[in-house]
Write a structure and sequence with these properties.
This protein is an alpha/beta fold. It contains 17 helices and 18 strands. The chain starts with 10 loop residues before the first helix and ends with a helix. InterPro entries: GH3, GH3_C, GH3_M.
Length: 510
């Protein structure tokens, strides 16, 4: 079990054996050394002299000097594109058998993110670690762990490429490659999990809901909420616990849970435990390890080497594009409360890779972080520096204040009367006056963000807000071909998607 749970020696014994302390810096150095050793004979490792970094006493700094920062477009065009033709040993040893199709929230074309057997193994270890951590939660219903695990994910029926690889949603790949010992607990089962039609999959889950005893649900909040609403409506019950009395744990990730919490809790008959995880197509980054933790703890000892780029004007331009040689800090160099963009190097052949998320450390000693947004999803038309974190908090406070469910929203910045304005589009099926909601959100953002408050009295002249039904948002995602568990509605609309959104609001099509 030592590979799954870290065994810590008592300090006195460690000192007697002269074992160096297992610090975050040391864990990350070991991870980097292991990754570089494994990949040194790949094309990438040869070009960027991994052997040279391995021989240097300061391996981290040398690695940063030798290897440039990559975003998806750069690493795909220069490296990953070859692997789709079956070329082995490009950025990681061997051929790539699986690709996670990821479009994020703004890109039109699908991204092909390599998924290696080593990465799948690392993810499995972290899933088990996360499960064990929840056993320690005092408020957790222990019965939940012996019941069914409902995983609302992408289709396990993957598309096959000419070179013999398979591609699909990461959740579909993970479900297809689930460990044999998990089969007994896994729901909705192989047949339903393979379905590509999201509506058909949801309807099948609803039909079988009474046959299952679900204790543990894993998925993106919006789609899990929709599924439970459908079940409650179908069986004419008051709450989900009348169908699944042992439901006790909800594991979520991908988006901030704050805006969903009010609507989610309306569906429950008794309290449950919420566990946030940080799982991206590129790797399992962290999870909430303690019951009352402020954030998610980064996994520093399982094949991901992290770097942190201060999210400021020095390292990113006005559109959120990273500069050529940004300042990149390692785990022992970061500060609490500051916002960073995340770079990752992993056992799937991503190297100094910008995943697009911004985070801040909320507990530096425990290396716990909160996701604050995306490098390209923020509003700063006139210096208001409005982050997705600010938006999520304002929506959460508004939903609690007005006692309404707001499962989705998006914000647009635009010129207005020689100055600028923000327009909010908010999804709710509950009754609320749009102007009351607008004034409340504006007021809370002024309290949350000093820059916003300053600009609201100068160049940011107005805030508009339009209340739409939840179906309006879902229909747009359906027209975009993004209906399903892996797709998230963008919190900030820009570029081509904004054009499509405006056209959709006017004509009903994109």
């Amino acid at each position: 079990m030592a590979s799954i749970i870290d065994i810590k020696l008592p300090k006195a014994i460690a000192n007697a054996l002269r074992i160096p302390p297992n610090t975050a810096k040391r864990q990350q150095q070991r991870v980097l050394k292991k990754l570089l050793k494994k990949a040194r004979f790949t094309e990438f490792g040869q070009k960027y002299h991994f052997d040279e970094a391995l021989m240097d006493k300061n391996i981290g700094k040398k690695f940063q000097q030798l290897v440039p920062v990559h975003d998806y477009n750069k690493i795909y065009e220069e490296w990953w594109k070859k692997t789709l033709d079956g070329v082995p040993d490009v950025t990681w040893p061997g051929k790539i058998k699986y690709y996670a199709l990821s479009s994020g929230t703004s890109e039109a074309a699908s991204k092909y993110i390599p998924i290696t057997k080593e990465l799948l193994r690392s993810n499995t270890i972290n899933y088990v670690r996360q499960l064990f951590s929840v056993f320690g939660y005092e408020e957790a219903n222990k019965k939940a762990f012996t019941k069914g695990f409902l995983m609302l994910g992408g289709a396990t029926d993957l598309q096959k490429g000419e070179a013999g690889w398979y591609a699909g949603d990461l959740s579909g790949i993970l479900a297809k490659k689930r460990p044999f010992w998990f089969q007994t607990f896994y729901k909705p089962g192989g047949r339903i999990a393979a379905m590509k039609d999201w509506n058909q999959k949801l309807n099948e889950i609803v039909e079988h809901a009474r046959d299952w005893d679900i204790g543990y649900i894993v998925g993106v909040p919006a789609w899990c909420q929709m599924c439970m609403e459908m079940i409650i409506e179908h069986y004419k019950v008051k709450n989900i616990h009348e169908i699944w009395p042992n439901f006790g744990v909800f594991v979520h990730g991908g988006v901030s849970f704050g805006p969903y919490k009010k609507g989610f809790e309306k569906l429950l008959g008794k309290p449950i435990v919420y566990v946030e995880n940080y799982l991206s197509s590129e790797g399992f980054i962290g999870y909430k390890m303690r019951e009352h933790a402020k954030g998610m703890q980064l996994v520093l000892n399982n094949n991901i080497f992290f770097e942190f780029v201060p999210f400021d004007d020095k390292n990113f331009d006005a559109d959120g594009v990273i500069v050529k040689n940004p300042e990149a800090l390692m785990i022992h160099e970061v500060e609490e409360g500051k916002e960073y963009a995340l770079l990752m190097s992993t056992n799937a052949g991503t190297w100094r890779y910008l995943i697009g998320d911004t985070i801040k450390f909320v507990d530096l000693e425990r290396h716990e972080v909160a996701i604050t947004g995306r490098t390209k999803h923020f509003l700063s038309l006139v210096g208001e520096h409005l982050s997705v974190d600010n938006m999520n908090m304002a929506i959460q406070l508004a939903s609690e204040h007005f006692n309404i469910s707001i499962p989705e929203f998006t914000v647009v910045g635009h010129p207005y009367e020689n100055f600028f304005a923000h327009t909010w589009y908010v999804a709710t099926n509950d009754t609320v006056h749009a102007d009351d909601l607008r004034q409340y959100i504006d007021k809370k953002l002024r309290e949350l963000n000093d820059d916003y408050a300053t600009e609201r009295d100068s160049a940011l002249k107005e805030v508009f807000l339009e209340v739409l039904t939840e179906d309006k948002f879902l229909k747009f995602m359906e027209l975009k071909g993004k209906l399903g568990s892996q797709h998230k509605f963008p919190r900030v609309m820009k570029g081509k998607m904004l054009e499509e959104w405006n056209r959709y609001l006017q004509t009903g099509s994109i």
